[in-house]
Design brief:
Structural class: mainly alpha
Order of helices and strands: HHHHHH
Strand content: under 5%
Helix content: 40-55%
Distance between the termini: 28 Å
Number of domains: 1
Radius of gyration: 17 Å
Number of strands: 0
Length: 147
């Protein structure tokens, strides 16, 4: 399967962060986008509210100039982060009164975020979902039929 350079770099960073316990939805440098952007938080200036899809003035200017951050546009970065936060169990946009997971560093919470984020990255690059494990079972059924 042919994938883009941005996709390969992003999933590598996300997998490393997950396995090193550095995939934290409450930290702008360790969330999905923070990790994709080399553990920086400069991306948070693209919107006024964490967890929204609405670009602010800075975000719109960068979007209109076709600016890319490690291959992703400002709107794509907000979409990635929104996907990650929702999968981790946050009510968006983030607000102290809104629902959030009880244990932000729980591996199950992190895995759900990782899973949905990588699925979304596949969607952005128009490639088959690499997280789709059902194909494994289909191949196994086919092998059993052939036996």
């Amino acid at each position: 399967m042919k994938t883009s350079q941005r996709f390969e770099a992003a999933i590598k960073k996300l997998y490393i962060a997950f396995h090193n316990n550095r995939l934290n939805p409450a930290c702008c440098k360790q969330c999905a986008v923070g990790n994709i952007l080399d553990n920086t938080d400069s991306w948070k200036h693209l919107s006024d509210y964490h967890g929204t899809l609405k670009l602010n003035y800075v975000g719109k200017v960068n979007q209109n100039l076709n600016r890319k951050f490690n291959g992703y546009s400002p709107l794509e970065l907000l979409q990635i982060e929104t996907t990650f936060l929702k999968a981790c169990g946050f009510q968006l946009p983030l607000h102290y009164k809104n629902d959030k997971p009880k244990n932000l560093t729980d591996k199950e919470v992190q895995f759900k975020g990782l899973f949905e984020t990588i699925s979304f990255l596949c969607h952005l690059d128009n490639i088959p979902n690499v997280m789709d494990y059902q194909k494994l079972f289909e191949n196994e059924k086919e092998l059993q039929i052939l036996k």
